[in-house]
Amino acid sequence: MIAQLRICVPEKLSGVVVECCSGELGVAEVARHPGASVLPPGDVIHVLLARESVEGLVEKLHALNVQEVGSIAVTMPDLVLSDRADQAMAAAPGEGADAVIWDEVSQQTGEDSRLTWSFLAFLVLATQLAAIGIVTDSTIAIVGAMAVGPEFGPLAALAVALVRRQGPLGRGAALALGVGFPVAMLAAALGAWLSLPLGLFPADALDHGSAVDFIYHPGPYSLIVAVLAGTAGMLSVISQRSSALIGVFISVTTVPAAGFVAVALVLGEYGKAAGSALQLFLNLVGIVVSAVAVLVFYRLITKRLPRDAALRLRRKALRSQR
After folding, report:
1. Alpha-carbon span 319 to 321, nearest angstrom
2. 189, 266 Cβ separation under 8 angstroms
3. Which 3 state secondary structure label does DSSP give 71?
4. Looking at the structure, do residues 269 and 184 belong to the same domain, yes or no?
5. Domain match, 148 and 291 both
6. Does one domain contain both 208 and 221?
7. ω into residue 40 within 30 of 0, thus cis?
8. Rounded Cα distance, 184 and 72, in Å
9. What separation, in Å, do the N-terminal and C-terminal C-alpha atoms of the chain show?
10. Which domain holds residue 203?
């Protein structure tokens, strides 16, 4: 798998950056365009390299403070025809599918974790769909609610924030979850309360819902499923396999549990509401814990730039700017 970096730097730093990129294992091409950047003024450097080499090179560019004086853009071309690119991928250690670009993971999860109107709308719709599936004893509707729910984004972002110690990212994810679920549950409770006098479902609707009993019966497998789902979800984020997230969405009962709590409280089934709330808690905790474990594992096996090498690059950059 080939990646492309577009680096914008001041002219004084350009030579050091070109030298840094040219010496990185897994780099196939380095192109320098003097004066190509107008705002800010400077050079533009394009680098073609193996995806598994991106994180190491980005770390070195961070050590040169490129992100402060210029910019770094990483893209994944759909098609690259080059023998040099093939040789670079063969020379780079590891596999591109297993490579982690930490800045990319942080940005991706951050975009999916913000408290936006679309996030609230999807969560409210998913919880309402789950509530309807609960009172009608419809497994199909509940599975549909699992697929629509957008809650994995903030959960993944919370895990990334814990591992990388990114306070703003973690606070944004916690806000999305802390506001989103109560709003969605309140909307589902309101819908159930309005449906009762209209006769849309009987007051004993929860007593004969054998298809939804698993939602308010938490057990060891509730946590096990959440852990497995969180692991699969974070692996799909790291490897950019978004199709795998669909399987994650339909395997955990976060949204159905939230919908069940709302309906059970309206119907006065407080014991079942408590069981469903525990189910929700176990799923949320299990997903975050397993996602953190995946990130920690990848962080341990990912080669990091030695501190002394980073200091040498920083000193060289300072000398070139004088």
Report:
1. 5
2. yes
3. strand
4. yes
5. yes
6. yes
7. yes
8. 39
9. 38
10. 105-301
Query: Do residues 125 and 184 share a domain?
Result: yes
Which sign does the torsion angle of CA 290, 294, 295, 296 carry?
A: positive
**pTM reported for the whole predicted model:** 0.77
The amino acid sitting at 94 is G
Residues 82, 188: one domain?
no
Question: What pLDDT digit, counting tens, does each position of 19-77 carry?
Answer: 888 888 888 999 999 999 898 899 999 999 888 888 888 888 888 888 888 999 988 88
Are 130 and 271 within one domain? yes
Separation of alpha carbons 267 and 276, rounded Å: 14
pLDDT tens digits for range 294-320: 988 888 876 554 444 444 555 555 555
CATH assignment of the domain containing 30: 3.30.70.120
CA distance 319 to 50: 30
CB 131 within 8 A of CB 266: no
- Contact present, 67 and 61 (Cβ < 8 Å): yes
Number of domains in the chain: 2
**pLDDT at 185 > cutoff 80:** yes
Residues 260, 215: contact at Cβ < 8 Å?
Answer: yes
Q: Report residue 129's pLDDT band, with 50, 70 and 90 as the boundaries.
A: very high
**Paired tokens of 289:** 């814990």
Q: Which two tokens stand for residue 174?
A: 């916690």
